[in-house]
Amino acid sequence: SLEWSKEGEHVRRSIRVAIEDWNADVIRLAVADRFWFGRGENQYRGNPYRQLVDEAIATAAERGAYLVLDLHDYVAPRPEQVTFWTDAARRYKNHPAVIFGLLNEPHGVSWDVWRDGGTVRRDDGRFESPGMQGVLDAVRETGANNLVTASGLEYGYKLSGVLDGYALRDPGGRGVVYESHPYPWKDNWKESFVDVSEEHPIFIGEIGAPKERFDFIPPSAHEAPETFVPDALGLIQKHRLNWTGWSFHPAAAPVLLENWDYEPTEHWGRPAKEALGGMRFNDDISEEEYR
User: What is the pTM of this model?
Assistant: First the structure.
């Protein structure tokens, strides 16, 4: 909830429940740079927001879990987000539990602009993007060696450019994990990350299935959760991929939770919780391989 709320909603409690009751070992925390610097509506200082992020990281780290600090924005990195990452990287420099998620869901630009930056035109104007490489370089210039994740195009889903010469350069850090957001309405969602996973580490940063079709999804593109969820979890297990489900909130669909009592939804939350608890969704994996 920190991407839309400067105060957050049950943030620390949700992290505790996710780790202690759902067996999660990584939390993806969506944040907004406007709140970080105190520029949100009716927000006069950024410090309380940053303190809440500090507390979220401590809550996860004290329980042996990682936290992905996800800059929850879209299209392409903006120049001011270099400022955000410079500040955040200095704050969490080489923290063993903190991973930097450079940008939530890039889309609508070329792979050249995705990596190296350039002019980005939108309905509300245009800006010069530093590209994902520019953001990564800014992080490394602080001396922060933290692992980073880099989401692909088409709203963080498509990673094909990584195999076509657009991989990021990171000679001085702990490395780049490429992030994909496959959902049941995406074309060829399996191919979006499986091929790349043979050469690079992959993080399924968002995945989930709505109970009912979203209005923006054509009927022909909708796959029911009854088939998508076990298929997706099985594929993740087969390829031993890292993943976080969207979302641990009862209102930000696709939802894992029915309510703030943390009751899992039957169509998505229950199987996700079972997968985190050790249930196998792919019969091709031997017991030894799964362990």
Answer: 0.95
